Amino acid sequence: TKTERPITRTSELKISFEFFPPKSPDMEAQLWQTVEALQPYQPDFVSVTYGAGGTTREPTLSTVKRLIDDTPLATASHLTCVGATRDEVRAVVEEFEAAGVRHFVALRGDPQGGVGTRYAPHPGGYVNAADLVSGLRAMGDFEISVSAYPERHPESENDTVDLDMLKQKVDAGATRALTQFFFDNDVYERYMERVQAAGINIPIVPGIMPIQNLTQLKRFASMCGASIPSFLDARFEGSEGDAQARAAIAADLAAEQIADLSRRGVQEFHIYTMNRAPLTIATLDRLGVSPKAGRVSGAAA
Ligand code: FAD
């Protein structure tokens, strides 16, 4: 039987927000509006993804630089080692360090042929994310976060192999893991039991995905090994074509997931904002997390 713990006071919740670099002027405007709207929630940190979807280091660097220069937000940059030599990674790290980055989310990255193809390390590059973490450790005194997969990474043949990679990343110097999104909290709880049994003691911060679009999410989830429980379909049933109702359901779901995890003792959450503020705000609202006064944004200036 599970002991019911009291819900963590929302003032004790730590949150971080994930953004991606915009690919067009419209998306750029949307990102900075989002940053301005979310900034008063005073996240522990925000992070900007790297290299995914055909982008290079430049859009990540300029986004990170603007966050550091124009906002008070602690900003982490994601970094991948796919398709790059060690020297190339070092040059990128030096550039980001010069821009003020002190926190990296270190990732291997998807195979260059796309998800589902075979990953091959670049000759002269880092072999995997753990190797990249060691390299980063040697380059400077950075805070290093990594990925974790409660439903295991699609390339891992079993849970042991998957957890072993996480352990290697921690042994190499990672101090926090951010998870792939998941919707079944029992899956996370069982994962945490395995994590603890493996002697891994860093925070494994749940990645929370408020559902902007269930159809798109299903497509994406099938590529990254995350499952979509049938209760999600049931909750959205009957709301087809009603954007407002669907947004309310999505916010209810994300808030319920966070509240339930918080009852199970989790205090830190990483929210995939998809560069949009309303759903994240509606979620935080339902949890009683309110914006805090006293910080002035320069982000949208
Ligand atoms: P690793 O931790 O190195 O490996 C993941 C798993 O794959 C391990 O459990 C390991 O067991 C298994 N594995 C790895 N190599 C092999 C192998 N050769 N044979 C068998 N099993 C193997 N991608 C981006 O491009 N840019 C981003 O900014 C980005 N941000 C992310 C943020 C988070 C929080 C998460 C969860 C993922 C992110 N990704 C990003 C996706 C990530 O790059 C992919 O999932 C990639 O396929 C694995 O990278 P990793 O660092 O998680 O890999």
Describe the structure.
The chain is α/β, with parallel strands linked by helices. 42% of the residues lie in helices and 14% in strands. The protein contains ten helices and eight strands. It has helices spanning 25-38, 57-70, 86-98, 129-139, 159-172, 185-197, 214-224, 230-236, 243-263, 278-286; strands spanning 14-19, 45-48, 75-80, 103-107, 143-148, 176-181, 204-208, 268-272. Strands 1-2-3-4-5-6-7-8 form an eight-stranded parallel barrel, surrounded by five helices. α6 (185-197) links the parallel β6 (176-181) and β7 (204-208). The radius of gyration is 19 Å and the shape is globular. The N and C termini lie far apart (53 Å). Residues 294-301 have low confidence and may be disordered. The structure holds flavin-adenine dinucleotide (FAD). Residues 49-52, 78, 80, 105, 107-110, 119, 128-129, 147, 153, 155-156, 161-162, 165, 178, 180, 207 line the site of flavin-adenine dinucleotide (FAD). One of its GO terms (biological process) is tetrahydrofolate interconversion. It catalyses: (6S)-5-methyl-5,6,7,8-tetrahydrofolate + NAD(+) = (6R)-5,10-methylene-5,6,7,8-tetrahydrofolate + NADH + H(+). This is Methylenetetrahydrofolate reductase.
